[in-house]
Amino acid sequence: MKLKNDKYKKARGGYSRLLNIACQKCGSSICQYQKDGAGSLRRMYVDRIIDPKISLDRKDLTCPKGHLLGVKIIYEKEKRPAFRLFVDSVVKKIIKV
Ligand SMILES: [Zn+2]
C-alpha cells in the first residue's frame, strides 16, 4: 500500500494516515482513505479514496445499505471533487502501514 505524495499532501503539512471508513449506522465498509494533515475528517477527496465499496459517481455518498453519509462537492480552493461528510456519519479506524 503506497500513500500518495503530492502538492495536496504538502499543502497539509506532509503528514498522512490511512483510515478505514465504515458506516456509523450499520458498520458497512465504505472504503479506505488517505487523510492528509491533522484535524478531523470533514470531507473525503475523491482522489484519496482507496478500494471503494460504493459508487463514487453519484451526487450522494451512501453506504451499501443505503444510509446517507454525505454529498459531493467541489472543494473550490483546489477545484477538487470531494464528499462533504455529515457529522458522525462514519466511523474511522487508523490502518497501520
Ligand atoms: Zn449503513
Secondary structure elements and pairings:
Blueprint: H1 7-11, E1 16-23, E2 29-36, E3 43-45, E4 49-50, E5 60-62, E6 68-75, E7 80-85, E8 90-95
Antiparallel strand pairs: 1-2, 1-8, 2-4, 3-7, 5-6, 6-7
The chain binds zinc ion.
List key phrases describing it:
single chain, 97 residues, mainly beta, globular, binds zinc ion
Neighbour order of strands in the largest sheet: 4-2-1-8
The CATH first-level class comes to: Mainly Beta
Head-to-tail CA distance between termini: 7 Å
- In what range is the share of β-strand residues? over 45%
Radius of gyration, taken over Cα atoms and rounded to an integer in Å = 13 Å
Let me know the average pLDDT.
96
How many independent structural domains?
Answer: 1
* Overall shape: globular
The name of the CATH topology is Metal Binding Protein, Guanine Nucleotide Exchange Factor, Chain A
